[in-house]
Structures are given as structure tokens and as C-alpha cells.
Amino acid sequence: FVCKNQVGSLRYMAPEILLNFVNVSNLRNENKLAVLNKADVWSAGQTIAQLANLSEPYAQALSQDDLEEAMLNKQVDLVTSTGPDDSLFVSVINSALTFDYKKRPDAYDL
Questions:
Q1: Up-side HSE of residue 63: CA atoms within 13 Å toward CB?
Q2: For 36, phi and psi rounded to 5 degrees?
């Protein structure tokens, strides 16, 4: 899926952007950068999770409505394990996929 009013693939778009929890265009510059930084962390987490899980994010979603419903239900494809001694790696990925952007770390915190 491709989002028509935002740039990027919907499967990697942060929930706060896709579901319009935050209207980025109405934010002041410093707040906009903070929100977009955390949205980028989500997208990076989705990309790394895809590599770890060997499947694209929200693979079960066949339409934008399915994807939005999965996000509204806070369904996230977390990584459980990639091998021995991977607890830090898994923790970093899963923290990047924190649904609530206010609780999600920014790139500096990761």
C-alpha cells in the first residue's frame, strides 16, 4: 500500500502518523521534529523486525482498512528471538516498536 497524503509505505508508517493521532502539519518545528524522529524510529524498527522475522510488517493486512484496524488494536509483530545471546538486540527492536510514540525512545535513546 502507498499512502497518498504522506510519503512512504503504510506498513512502515508509524501509527501516530497513519492513524492521524498527531497532525504533524499543525505542530511547531521543535515538536514536529520530535514526533517525526520517533516515527522514524518506528519505521526503522519495522524494517529490522522484518529482517529478524523474515516477513513484512502486518503481512496479514490485505488492505489499508485491515492495516488501520490492526494498528488500532495495537497489533505489532514483535521479535521474540533471533538466536542465542540476542536479548539486547530484541529489546532494542521491540522498544522501537512501542505503540505510544510518547513512550517510544528516540534515536538518541536507542
A1: 3
A2: -70, -35
Q: Is 37 strand, coil or helix?
A: helix
The pLDDT value recorded for residue 98 is 93
Q: How many helices and strands, by DSSP H and E, does the chain display?
A: 4, 0
CA distance 93 to 84: 16
- Dig out the grid coordinates for 110 from the structure: 536507542
Q: What is the mean pLDDT of residues 86-100?
A: 89
Look up the pTM and report it.
Answer: 0.80
Checking phi first, is residue 17 left (phi over 0); if not, alpha (psi -120 to 50) or beta?
A: alpha
> DSSP code of 109?
T
Q: What is the pLDDT of residue 103?
A: 93
Q: Give the relative orientation of helices 29-53 and 87-96 as an angle to the nearest 10 degrees.
A: 130
Q: How far is CA 88 from CA 64, 65, 81, 83, 84, in A?
A: 33, 34, 10, 11, 11
